[in-house]
Amino acid sequence: MVSKKQLSMEVLLNNPEIKQIIDRVSPEEAERRTYSPPKCEAFTSRCTVLNETDEYKFFKDLEAQEKLPHIIHNKVQLISGMDEPDQASLDRFTRELRIGIVFSGGPAPGGHNVIAGLFDAAKNANPKNRIFGFLLGPDGIVESQFVEITESLVDAYRNLGGFSMIKTGRTKIDTAKKVRLSRETCKKLKLKALVVVGGDDSNTNAAFLAQELYKDGIQVIGVPKTIDGDIQVQDSEGKNLCAMSFGFHTAARSFARNIGGLCIDSNSDVKYWHICKVMGRVASHLALEVALQTHANMTLIGEDLADYVDEARLEKARKEGTTDYTAYGMTLRHLSRLICEAITRRAAVGKNYGVIVIPEGVLEYINEIQLIITKLNTVIADFNNTHDKDFHTTFPTLESKLEYLRRLVRGIRPDLSPALWNAHDDELFNDMPEFFQKGLLLERDSHGNFQFSQVETDQVIMQMVKDYLSILKEKGRYTIGIERGYFRSILERDGLDPDFYGPVMFQNYGDGEYLLIKKSIMSMKTLKLEFTKSGKLETEEELPSAIEHIYSKSVPKLKTQTHFFGYDGRGSDPTRFDCDYTYNLGQTVFSLVVNGATGQMAAIKNLEQDFSRWEPIGIPIAPLMRLEERKGKMTLVIEKSLVDLESNAFRVVKALREKWLAASPGDDEYRSPGPIRFTGKSEEDRPITLILNAVGKY
Fold first, then answer.
1. Whether pTM exceeds 0.85
2. What residues make up the domain containing 438?
3. Which residues are tagged catalytic?
4. What's the CA gap between 688 and 591, in Å, rounded?
5. For 214, which DSSP code?
6. pLDDT digit string (tens) for 23-35?
């Protein structure tokens, strides 16, 4: 045997073809960097100007008016282009500026293009303009940690996902010291403006910074970022100003691509129920879009559950001359029953598999759970405020936390109302699985929110589902339907007469494409008993192997695979929609800054329409703020947007629930959304949710 001489590692690694293959930059990434997003018409002009409009009305919270007097009366600003500007406008647009930008909160696909759009607009207006990126989120402002954004840096991240260029963080600039240090940083860099790219809390922070820095002449502009899609802005008359925050489309497509793959797997292996939890702590926009993208068998929409009314229970109460207030709103028990019904109905037609989509915050819409969370939040906040200690540090173990709650029930804190934590609450809480108790007592996030993503929401629900399915199985109500033709072929293969055995085994042998085992048959023993009682089998005879085989096929075994979709979607490379959207948001930011705006949120109006109709605008942030309870205190924050149950998108999903459940003979209705890409005529140009909601409005 002739041995071959191996190439040296130096030669191997310096081979041009191999160098290209193992290079850090993939061909896909290299191609992405060269993509040049189109610009809104206003940004193709020589310069831009702002025009305030009174068309849009906002209800202004009294607390916001008191706390944000410098920006509360801001109006919506329309951005228009000027091809032949007067000298004053041109001088203003081309003057030298320094602008700082920071990412705040979790990553969202498209953030780099906000920087790219801002950088390109600034350099086109005046090559001497300078952009500074603060590192690791708002901490970079407080600690004066920054990097100057250069052309080479921008080019390395164009159209790419993540916030890797300057990183991100969750610090809030919410104390006098942090504000003072931030002011010093901005002045040291001689910034004209600070741009905050973030979600509802970050844009709230931007509004307060705009107020604090107003007299220093430092402008603050917010940019709406959240994959949850819960920043949507309408005025008080319902006029749409911002249909969706950036990053939503990419995250939804990323989740849908993977969940679509699970639909195919489920339909191929025909033995798993895939339980898919998707991000969405408060709003179910992502779950709704995933439903439209994949046609999963069942998708829970939290807002819909909160709106649920048990008509049967109400009718029973009416007949009894009483009112049953528990009929309003979904309970965990009833939710588990709805899922069980879907599983049993599909099993009856031979489909003991499927896909369920659950938003991570679904438990927030379950009355009893929401009440428990609210009470626990209040208990924790009360302890922290009363003792000037941290509840979670003082009681580090689950048992120590539970003991404190038991002490409340025993009246150890007579100053607290019994309604805060009583024996009924304690009983309900103790009935929950230990892992769920731990989840409910988790330390709240930096905003005081319950961390639903840290709780195995799907496990809580599915454990109840499995428990009830066991009961249904014992009652003969959870069984796998046997296809009639299959039954005949198996028996005839062994020389048996299907019509002789069928009527004894099946409750619907004379009707139906799928045959269901009689409810009285719950084991091989009761199956044999059924045949001996009918005279079709002698007591000492054994069941034919074909009959045993058919029966075993009818006995369901619920096999589940759980999946969480969240961080993968946050870090995905953006869709073409999000690339175009964020690049134009960056261009919008520059127009707002150069024209003197502050306390405004950069936005693109008409996102739900064709790109040619997109309009860059500035939305006043202060009028969007409302008082909400955070960490036991009422705090001004931007109101989150929930799924509108009257919207076209939800109504379509609701109308097609039965079809997508596919609890009938025949194929499933699964839809494969395909990968995220730039090329091809089939690539969608905006979220399905936006397309549907625009129908009939324009």
1. yes
2. 248-471+560-569+646-694
3. 228
4. 30
5. G
6. 888 888 999 999 9
